[in-house]
Predict the structure.
Amino acid sequence: MWKRPYLKNFLQDMYKKFNIILVVGSPIKMGKEIIDAITEFENVYEDIISINDLIIFENHEVVNLSKLKNIDKNNTVIIDHDCWGFLLDKYNGIEISPYQANKTDSELPKLAAFLDIIYENENAIKYLQSLRENK
């Protein structure tokens, strides 16, 4: 199994600041096994969304935030390499490059620095929306 470089540190650091919900494109049992292997059984996430909870639209897996309970949508971001993943909640999305088993991949440290900026804002979605509108 390939693990993106810095994944463990990224999850550990982000878990201190955010509620992390991991999305897996497989049934929940298999997804849990994959996540346990990635996180080395360390508690660095709140919940898992499996393929059963996703909407499939034109062969893309789309997260539906309205299915999640006890979250503040204004302070929830979806990180995905496929922008279709946040089709229903476009201002909640942050697109990252897909992982290609490259050991020099540095996407997660850059993402962590960006998320630290978002963390300092009261309303993450307004902040992301302002960035998009000022492009």
